[in-house]
Amino acid sequence: MQEVTIIGAGLAGSEAALQLSKRGIKVKLYEMRPNKTTGAHVGSDCAEFVCSNSLGSLDITNASGLLKKEMEILGGELIKIALENSVPAGNALAIAREDFSRAVTKRIENDTNIELIREELTEIPEGNVIIASGPLTSDSLAESIKEFTKSEHLHFFDAIAPIVEMDSINFEKAFWASRYDKGEASYINCPMNKEEYERFYNILINAPRIEQHDIDKKAKFFESCLPVEVLASRGVDTLRFGPMKPVGLVDKRTGVENYAVVQLRQDNSAKTLFNLVGFQTNLKWGAQKELLQSIPGLEEVNIVRYGVMHRNTFINSPQVLDPTMEARERKGLFFAGQLTGTEGYTESIATGMLAGINMAKHILDEELWILPKETILGALTRYISDKAHLEDSKFTFQPINSNWALVPPVELPKKERKNKKLKNELLAKRSLETLDYFVKNY
C-alpha cells in the first residue's frame, strides 16, 4: 500500500488524514507548529480554530447547514468531533475550540495509520501529496507552490476578533438572548442607545490601526470577514445593519429593541470566555481596549486575546485544480482547505474530506469523485476549479464560501417565486436526494 504525505494538520489536513486512515492507508502528517509559528495560531494542537469558534448554521435550508449535512452523509470525521464538542449558539454550531482541537489531536496521535511529524516542509515532495497548509502557508513552501502553479499567489487580509472573560461583563446592562428567541438564549448582548452608539462609532473611526508592511498594502480584504473599522468607514449606520444589528434582540427586562447591539458568543466549554461576534479588527491594542470598554456592559471587561490581522494566501484554483481537488498537471497531488480559495471552517473541513476520499481512490486506482452540481460541496468545488473563469478577462478569483448562488436554481410556481424559504427547502431536498443516489451508485 502506498503512503501519503499531508502538509498541514489544520482542519483540512486533519480531516484528509482521518479519511485516508479509515481506508487503511498510511499517512505522514507534517505540521510545522510549534517549532515555527504562523502569527495567528496560539497553540500547537491539530485543527485549531483561529478567527472564530463558529461553523455556522445547522439549518439545512441554509447553505452552510446543508454542507454540514452533506459531510455527515459522506462520512466526515471532524464534523462528528465538532458536534461532540459543541457549545450553545442558538441555531448555529459553535465549538469549545480548545476541547475540539485537543480531541482531534488525540485522535490523530492514537491512530496507528497516521504519523504526526512536527517539521516544516519547505518544498512539495514527490509521491502522493495533499497540500493543506492553509492561508498562513510559510514563505518557503509558498514559493515552492508558486513555482509549481506557474502563477502569482493571490492574497487577502483576514482579521481575528477579541476574546474576553465572562466574569468581567456587567450583566446589569448586558442580557442573554438569541436572535428572534431561536434556540436557547446563548448569546450575551450589550445594548446601545443612539447616544452610546454614536460615541462608540466616533471612537472607532478615529482609532489608530496597526500598519501593514508595504508588500501587503495592495492585498484585499475578504468581504465576509471585514475588520469592524473598515465596515464603519462605509457609513455611520453600516454596523447597525451588520454585526451590530438590533433586530430580533429584545431585553425582556425592559421590552426595548435597542438602537444597536454587540453580541458575544461562547468560546470555551467552561463558559468563561466569549468572543465578540463580527468584531474582527486591526486596531492597536490600546485602541481596542478603549473601544471595547466604551460598550455598555464591557466597561471593565478583561480582554484575554486582542484582535489581530494576518495575510491569507490562496492559489488560483481555476488554473490549477480539477473539481476532485487534484492538480491537473500532476496526478497524485491534491490541494485542500482555504489554500484553494474556499472560505470558512466548514468549507475547509469539507474540501479536506473530499481530497482524502479522492486520494484514496487514486491509490486504489478507482474513479475519482466529482460530486453532483446540485450539492453544496459539488457546486463549490466545481466553482473554484471552473476553467471558464480563465476565459473571462473581467473575472478575478477571490475566496468564496458555500452559498445558494453556486447551485442550479429550482423551478417554482409563478406565485411562489419570491418565497425564499420554499426555494431553499427545495434546494436542500434536491441536494440530499442527489447525494444519496450518488453515494449508493458511485
Q: How would you characterize this protein structure?
A:
By secondary structure, the chain is α/β, with parallel strands linked by helices. The protein folds into two domains: 248 residues, FAD/NAD(P)-binding domain; 145 residues, Elongation Factor Tu (Ef-tu), domain 3. Helix content is 30%, strand content 17%. It contains twelve helices and 19 strands. The strands form five sheets. A six-stranded antiparallel beta sheet has the order 10-11-15-16-9-17. The longest helix is centred in the last third of the chain and has 22 residues. The protein is globular and about 65 Å long. The two termini are 23 Å apart. About 2% of the residues have low confidence.
How are the secondary structure elements laid out?
Blueprint: E1 4-7, H1 11-21, E2 27-30, E3 54-57, H2 63-73, H3 78-84, E4 86-87, E5 92-95, H4 97-109, E6 114-117, E7 128-131, H5 139-149, E8 154-159, E9 163-165, E10 175-177, E11 187-192, H6 194-205, E12 220-221, H7 228-232, E13 250-251, E14 256-257, E15 260-266, E16 273-276, H8 285-292, E17 303-305, E18 309-314, H9 317-320, E19 333-335, H10 345-363, H11 376-384, H12 420-441
